[in-house]
Each structure stands twice: as C-alpha cells, then as structure tokens.
Design goal:
single chain; alpha/beta; Rossmann fold; 4-stranded parallel β-sheet; globular; binds zinc ion
C-alpha cells in the first residue's frame, strides 16, 4: 500500500471520498442537498514531487507524459500494478484506438498563427497561439476526458455498461474509447440526432436509445434516461463533471501541453479564450492553470476568458450575479437578495450588457476583483455561490439555436471552477452573437490550415469582441483552442 497522498472531495459540501474508490463518480450528497454545487475533485496532498519536470516522461502521449499528475495512474499503482504495467496498458489501449479511429493520443500542435493574427490586425510582434485539437482521437478534445475516466476504472468495472447522453462529439469519443476498452456503451440520443453521427455510432458498436420527451417531464430526456441507466449500474461515461468528476483530469492534459510549450520556449500569454458548452474543457483548463500556477512560474498569468453564444449563456449570467454580490460586499452595501431559478433581467437586456461596448467597463470591475481575490469580501461571495447554486446556475429557459451548436448546453455543469478562475485572473465571460461566430469560423478556415467547426472556432469570436472593444493591447499575446473538426 502506498501512502495516501491523494484524495477526492466534493467542492460544494466537502464530502471526502477515498481516492482509490473506483466506484464513486459523483457526490453522495447530491440528492439530499440539491442547492449545493456538488462536484468531486481530485486532490494531491503532496504535489511538488508530482510536478517536477524530471518526472515528465519524454513521450508524446499525454497519458504517459503527465501520468504522475493523474489519479488513474496512482490508482493503478495502488492496485498492485507497476509503472511498467500502467505504460503497457496505455500502449495497448492506444494501439486499439489507432486501429479503430486512425490515431491514438499524441500531443496536439500549438501553432503560432501569423496569417490569422495579421487578418485580425495584430502587431507583428504579437503572438496568436492556437491549440489544434481537431485531429485528436475522434476529432475533438472529448476523447481526452473519457480516456482519463477509463484509466481510473478497475478491471471489474469494464464489465458494467458505460452510459452517455449525447449526439455529437462526446458520443463519438465515448464510442471510440469504450470500443478500445472492450466495454459496452449505451448512448442516449434525441429524436433529431444527425444521421451521420447515428451511423458512425452504430458502426462503432454503440447501443443507441432514442429518447422522446415524456408528458410533464422537465429537463433533457436523454440526460434523464442516462441517469436511470447509471442508477441501474452503468458507469457515467460522460464529460459532465457533476455526474463524473473524473472527467476533468484527462482534459487537463490538453492545457498542460500548452503551458509546457510556453515554459520551454519562454513565451508569455496574456489572454486565454475557451469556448464553453457543458464546461468540461474550460474547467479542465482552469484547473490545469491553477495547478501550474502553484508549482511553476508562468511569466504572466493570462486572463481566462470564456465564450458562449447569445443562444444560451448560463455561465455569463451566473458570473454577472456573483459580480453583483462581490460589488456590494466590496462597497459595504447590503447583500442583494437573489431569487433562485429566476433572472431579474430579460435575456435581451443581459445579452446587451455583454456587448463589446460594455467590455472596457467590465474589465475595470474584473481587475478590481482580481486584486481583491484573497479578501474576505470576494471569498465570502464565492463560497456563498457554491452553497447556493440555484441562485446562480440553472438550466437555460428557452431552446437555444446557434451556428455553434456544440456549445448550446442549457447548463454549464462545472460552472464554479470556471467562474473562480475568471475572477481570479481578471477574465470575462464573453457572449458572441451569430455574426461574430460566423466571422470567426470564416477567418479560422481562411487564414489557418486547421478546419474547425463553428463550435470549434467559437473562442475566436470572443477574441473578435475583445479586439473590437480595444481590450487587447498590441504587446499582448493570445491563445485559442480550435477543437471539434468540421464534419
Ligand atoms: Zn457534495
């Protein structure tokens, strides 16, 4: 038995789960304390040695290179497996992924896109970094999240079915990864799922369940049916953090790769833009940034910006409500009462409040909160928000539409970690309209050799808004994710 240097605990209620309990994926208090933001998060008690650069294996497979930071690796060691056993298992699974989908996991490129930067009117010295995740396993970052879960599972768990509610990149990634593992996958899809995705899922051997809305039922029927499957013993093989907190660590390898390149090449970056749907990509990146800041010196802490569409922006709404409370606390004003599940602004007014003309004013407030991050005023509000989720995050009321349809989740599941990172770094939640999303998609396809979908290039729409607002100085470097290949 190795020393207990790792544990898993709930961000919201503090419940601690044994780090080597590979059968608990969500907080046991979720149902009895529904107002609290429950999400399991892995913790390392002694982390410095896990972060030594000498620990980084000279491998291009992120699950090998960063294995000392992954709970899945420590679980393997704790189950009487050796380092070699772990490496052999990853190599075996990787070979199967390559046979099924054409590629295993390799570090994806971080390119400096000068033509795109020129088209955006950047200064010649300014750098625009783009992490090209479109050629990862199954064509998006989703496979990283799911492979991270897989490495955390015991051998016995592979006999249980895996369950996911999705009809896009997450489902495709789940199908590829579960096939490589030899596990049975149940996919819960809506009645209007895209035919090409359905065909590919069938070809990969996934068991499909078409979910119709039931009379009087609230919420996404696919998600509800997948929860029923989990209650019946299936593994939640999903990118939604509250249902499976282990989905975050595989995704973090993506941001580790970015920070490694910056550190190795002495690059600095002032702004990171991340598109947000369910929030797993942003949450993984936020946690990787927090870990990196704790152990390694990034020359500059980038502002962490998120990008949603005007179709649905529950994260921006939650951010606004938290900032309103922080503002009151910082000024010593009475604590505003926030009604749960109800916004006091119309959707149109709130979207207007995120227009590019409002950005400079918002940045002033963001800078003020960043400098006061450790104060009681700010910390008391963020803890309050974590314990009173329904006053900040609830499902979007209307059915959203956008060209960036992959980020139309009605709820940002892991909103809390993302908002804390925005507040801590002075980042903003940007809300892009369809014109900006279309322009970003065109620019990405015209001025780079990458071929992202409109969802995959949505981060660039956020950069366009910031550029319009004059909020990117001509000495500031910027990074984006292009993830999700055009199909
Ligand atoms: Zn909890």
């Amino acid at each position: 038995m190795i020393p207990q240097h790792h544990y898993v605990s709930c961000v919201g209620c503090g419940t601690r789960v044994h780090a080597y309990d590979s059968t608990t994926f969500s907080c046991p208090n979720r149902d009895c304390m529904p107002n609290v933001n429950h999400i399991l998060q892995k913790k390392h008690v002694i982390t410095t040695q896990l972060w030594q650069r000498s620990k980084l294996e000279d491998s291009r497979n992120p699950f090998v290179r960063y294995r000392h930071r992954l709970l899945g690796y420590h679980r393997a060691l704790n189950s009487h497996h050796s380092d070699i056993d772990y490496l052999e298992r990853v190599a075996e699974l990787d070979a199967k992924l390559a046979a099924i989908d054409g590629t295993g996991f390799v570090e994806t490129p971080l390119t400096i896109e000068t033509e795109l930067a020129d088209a955006l009117g950047f200064d010649p010295m300014q750098k625009l970094f783009v992490k090209d995740e479109t050629h990862n396993v199954a064509g998006s970052h989703k496979a990283r999240h799911l492979f991270g879960i897989l490495l955390n599972l015991s051998k016995e768990s592979l006999n249980r079915p895996f369950a996911i509610a999705s009809c896009g990149n997450a489902a495709l990634a789940a199908a590829v990864v579960s096939k490589a593992a030899g596990a049975k996958l149940e996919v819960y899809i809506p009645t209007d799922a895209e035919e090409s995705v359905v065909e590919r899922l069938k070809a990969l051997g996934a068991n499909l369940h078409i979910c119709e809305r039931r009379e009087g039922e609230l919420g996404d029927p696919c998600y509800l049916r997948s929860l029923e499957a989990v209650r019946d013993g299936a593994i939640p093989f999903t990118c939604q953090g509250p249902d499976n907190g282990l989905t975050i660590e595989g995704g973090s390898t993506l941001a580790y790769e970015i920070f490694d390149r910056w550190i190795e090449n002495n690059h600095s970056c002032h702004h990171m833009f991340v598109q947000v749907g369910g929030g797993a990509l942003a949450s993984s990146s936020a946690q990787a940034l927090a870990d990196t800041m704790r152990h390694e010196a990034l020359p500059i802490l980038p502002r962490f910006h998120t990008v949603q569409t005007r179709g649905a922006f529950p994260l921006a709404r939650a951010y606004d409500r938290i900032v309103r409370l922080i503002d009151a606390r910082l000024r010593g004003l009475p604590f505003p009462e926030l009604e749960p599940f109800k916004d006091d602004m119309s959707v149109e007014d709130r979207a207007e409040a995120h227009d590019s003309s409002a950005i400079s004013q918002r940045l002033i407030m963001a800078d003020c909160i960043r400098s006061a991050w450790d104060s009681t005023a700010v910390q008391s509000v963020v803890r309050y928000a974590c314990a009173n989720k329904n006053a900040f995050m609830w499902p979007w009321e209307s059915a959203p539409h956008s060209i960036a349809h992959g980020i139309l989740d009605d709820e940002t599941y892991d909103w809390y970690a993302i908002i804390c990172t925005m507040l801590r770094t002075g980042g903003l939640p940007l809300v892009a309209d369809e014109d900006h999303l279309k322009k970003a998609h065109e620019l990405a396809n015209s001025y780079t050799a990458i071929w992202p979908s409109a969802t995959g290039s949505a981060g660039l729409a956020g950069l366009l808004l910031m550029k319009e607002a004059g909020a990117i100085a001509d000495y500031e470097n910027v990074s984006l994710y292009f993830t999700g290949i055009e199909r």
